[in-house]
Amino acid sequence: MKGEKTMAVKQISVFLENRPGKLAEFVELLRGHGIDMRALSVAEAADFGVLRTIVSDPEKAQRVLAKAGFISAVTPVLAVAVSDEPGALYNILEILKGAEINLEYCYAFTTRKDEGAYMVFRVADDRIPETAELLGRNGIRTIAQEDIYGL
Fold first, then answer.
1. Which residues pair with residue 108 across a beta bridge?
2. Which of 24, 86, 90, 123 has the highest count of CB atoms within 10 angstroms of its CB?
3. How far is CA 58 from the centre of its chain?
């Protein structure tokens, strides 16, 4: 429906060569084009790392990265507000486990506005709407693409 917010957030995944300066080159490229990062995770392998990021303008970032020769892809993920208290993440994971929803990976990010805890959760594409609805029914807030930059 037009005007309806989607709970999926566009994450950009980038393959970075595992050598000195490659991450700085990536960050400089975004900075030079006025693209702000809201979340960042890097997982390394032997020769390449996988950088995952939520940026202010995913479409522009994709164009800029492609032009600069970076291999990247857009992946839908969920951004979730997590209570900043012991056991909060466990409670979310138990909800997902009870619904047999596999969490492929997750990482945390901070905000400018409050001291809340936020996480990015990757579940299968076809389970994103169900997961967002399930979390909402259990009092856990998911953040829409349109709202993530206002945090």
1. 119
2. 123
3. 11
Q: Which of these, 72, 134, 74, lies nearest to 103 by C-alpha position?
A: 134
Q: What is the pLDDT of residues 79-130, one digit of tens each?
A: 999 988 899 999 999 999 999 999 999 999 877 776 678 999 999 999 999 9
Report the alpha-carbon distance of residue 102 to residue 91 in Å, rounded: 15
Q: Say if residues 145 and 9 touch (Cβ distance below 8 Å).
A: yes
Is residue 70 classed as helix, strand or coil in its secondary structure? coil
- Residue 73 CA to residue 61 CA, distance in Å, equals 10
Query: Domains, the chain, ranges and CATH?
Result: 8-75 (3.30.2130.10), 77-150 (3.30.70.260)
The DSSP secondary-structure symbol of 4 reads P
Of 149, 92, 151, 147, residue with least CA distance to 123:
92
Q: For residues 5 and 22, what is the distance between their CA atoms, to the nearest angstrom? A: 35
What sections of 17-87 are H helices per DSSP?
22-32, 58-67
